[in-house]
Design brief:
CATH class of the largest domain: Mainly Alpha
Helix content: over 70%
Structural class: mainly alpha
Largest sheet: none
CATH architecture of the largest domain: Orthogonal Bundle
Radius of gyration: 52 Å
Shape: rod-shaped
Length: 261
Amino acid sequence: MQKQCAGINFFAQNHYFRAIILAVLLINKVFLHINRNKPMIGPQLLIVAVIVMFVIAFIITMVLLNANAKKIIDINSKLVENQNTLLEHNKQQEDTLEKRINELEEQLKQHIEDEVTLLQEQTRQHRERIELTTNMSNEELMAWIDQEMDERQLYTDTNLTLKMMAKSLGLTQRRLGALFKNNEKYNNLADYLNEKRFLLACRLLREKPNWTIEAVGAEAGFGGRRTFQMEVKRRLGITPLQYRQGMENVIDQETSAQVSD
């Protein structure tokens, strides 16, 4: 008996089992009443029927509520899981962004250091040029400029001006202008630059047979094909193409002579 009571108490802890037990007891009571040949009167039958229907409806309602509660719990669990995933993803993005920012800061720092180092080196070279050229005569200075121009090929810049050239060489614009103004060989700076460009163009015509005339002129610093052709014709009396063809003929003749020997 005690075991039966304990089992009932155990199942009664859940409202589903409470409702089922209540319905079973009521139905059992009805059957007992019938078996005793004591017919129920109308109100009693109505009350029993209402109670049974209420219990059944209650059970169905609780089952539905439990199912909905489980769904809500599952939805909440998924929402929490998605929220945790989103938080983790945001954290990874923040870490990646922070890492990228640190890398950019390091690159910017290195770039600034490189620029400062380059500026310091250029400043040092500029001072050295000033010290070197301060006490030079015009002839010495012109020879030095020739060497610098050939090594650095500053004249290949089509837009090179007196100001730009003076700055690159570490000279004052006034001194450089006076040097070409009083020069016996060159009428002005443009004449000097064109000669340098002409010499380079002739070398390219010889050494780069596959280059077009336009490419040779542009590489040498001439502003266009017409300017290049006019300069070559003024100095040699022939066009750049004729100069190249003539050099090819000379090379062929030298080669034939070597083969004959």
